[in-house]
Amino acid sequence: MMRAITLLHFLTFASATSPHHPTHAIKCPIIFDGRVPRNLALGSFDSAATSPYSPQFVKGENLTWSQILLLPNTSLSRFDTRSVHKPLEVTINDHSLFRPGGGNLQVGFRRAGLLLKNDTNSAGSDPADTGVVTFHWSVKQDRNRALNLSHEYMNVWHEKADYSGNQFTFVGGVVLEVDGGTGVDTRGERESWKVQDSKNGVVFRTPMRFGGWQNFAVQLDYVSS
Ligand SMILES: *[C@@H]1O[C@H](CO)[C@@H](O)[C@H](O)[C@H]1NC(C)=O
Ligand SMILES: *[C@@H]1O[C@H](CO)[C@@H](O)[C@H](O)[C@H]1NC(C)=O
Ligand SMILES: *[C@@H]1O[C@H](CO)[C@@H](O)[C@H](O)[C@H]1NC(C)=O
Ligand SMILES: *[C@@H]1O[C@H](CO)[C@@H](O)[C@H](O)[C@H]1NC(C)=O
Fold it and tell me: For this UniProt entry, which residues form the secretion signal (predicted)?
């Protein structure tokens, strides 16, 4: 049976502060904006010309983003402006198996990861990879497509350019030991969001609030760390 497991997920924008900016300049310009324009249709996510995200990566090998995403009629997150933006819902199921270029299908997990289309990989190659950068996002869960929180849901992360790990990871549910969690299926583990550092250590946790938006931000400092 195919079961859609979903997280309602408004991904976001990163902004940077530069300590060398003159005080009259905008201190935190938006670098990448993942908010969805209110008039965007689902089909627009399949084209680089119209999507804020990469139309190709990272998703089930036979799926298009317009088959994966939903545009639910729900409340707006705190960073959405009613006349401008709308939220976006991501679904995963047993078709969400990614095949890396020329490699084998990754059957150990399901993937539906939106990549900001203006992001480039190499360290320092875009403004989100230098200075001090803040990532903002909001999440809300879809009651009708509940997650099975005995599993690990890696929701937001920033991967190192050499793919050796993540600079930070935002994760929900029971986190596997191999990913830095306890692997122990307790209610406290299931029903909490966790932020992990670059060594997968949990640096922040908070209970999930079902039925409402939760807002998060993580700041990466490429200068002093
Ligand atoms: C991507 O970059 C282009 C060119 O700099 C810019 O016009 C556009 O707004 C950016 N898109 C997003 C979604 O950040
Ligand atoms: C969206 O939800 C609101 C409030 O629940 C409702 O009034 C409106 O008719 C809904 N719109 C659509 C297109 O379903
Ligand atoms: C994608 O389609 C091919 C060809 O039908 C099939 O062999 C493969 O199993 C499909 N992949 C997934 C993840 O369903
Ligand atoms: C949730 O996942 C656990 C672990 O895989 C499994 O034992 C359980 O049956 C699942 N629950 C539902 C409702 O599918």
Answer: 1-16
Which range marks the domain in which residue 126 is found?
Answer: 2-147+210-221
State the CB neighbour count (10 A cutoff) for residue 209: 13
Say if residue 141 is in the same domain as residue 164: no
The answer on 217 and 203 residing in a single domain is: no
**Domain check: are 121 and 175 in the same one?**
no
Q: Token pair for residue 131?
A: 């200075």
pTM equals 0.86
Burial status of residue 127 (CB atoms within 10 A of its CB: 0-12, 13-18, 19 or more): middle
Summarised one tens digit per residue, pLDDT across range 89-143 is 999 999 999 999 889 999 999 999 999 988 887 877 888 888 899 999 999 999 8
SS3 at position 8: strand
Query: Which ligand is in closest contact with the Cα of 54?
Result: 1
For atom 13 of ligand 4, which residue has the closest CA? 148
Residues with CB under 6 A from ligand 1: 32-33, 52, 118
In DSSP terms, which residues pair with 53 in a beta bridge?
Answer: 116
Sign of the dihedral through C-alpha 41, 159, 205, 134: negative
